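Hi there,

I know you've been waiting on this one. I reran it after we fixed the sequence typo, so this is the corrected version. Both the input and the resulting structure follow.
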Amino acid sequence: MSDLRSKIMDEMKTSMKAGNAARTSTLRMINAAIKQKDIDSRTDTNKELIADGAILSLLQSMIKQRRESIALYEQGARPELAAKEAEEIKVIEEFLPAQMSEVEARKIIAEIIAATGATGIKDMGKVMGAVKEKLSGQFDTAEASRLVKELLGA
């Protein structure tokens, strides 16, 4: 079992013992999403569980979904639901590495572009593959994509 999976499970057990229903619910939701991703990634030849990098990406997606929900709840004058989503984001963020600044990400992306020999937008796929691997969980993928396009001159 990966370190991240173990940490999530340990936190869930601690939360259950403490009687923190909201936190336990969020941790169960994270665990269920990971298990679903494991099932979705299985093939006849591959029975492996998803790696920590894929879990980090999943957590980022969960945060993005909640931010979108918060915006909709605020538009719909439902502050109590927006607050619930915000609390879930706090719990999910506990399992992500420290977030990188745009300046740091821009520097790393520039290094990746140089290392891959990318010269234009046609090389975007190659660069994004390396960027996702290097910045997984530390920087928003959509933001990274924007920076790659900018740095490749698109």
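Quick highlight: The chain has seven helices and no strands.

Best,
R. S.
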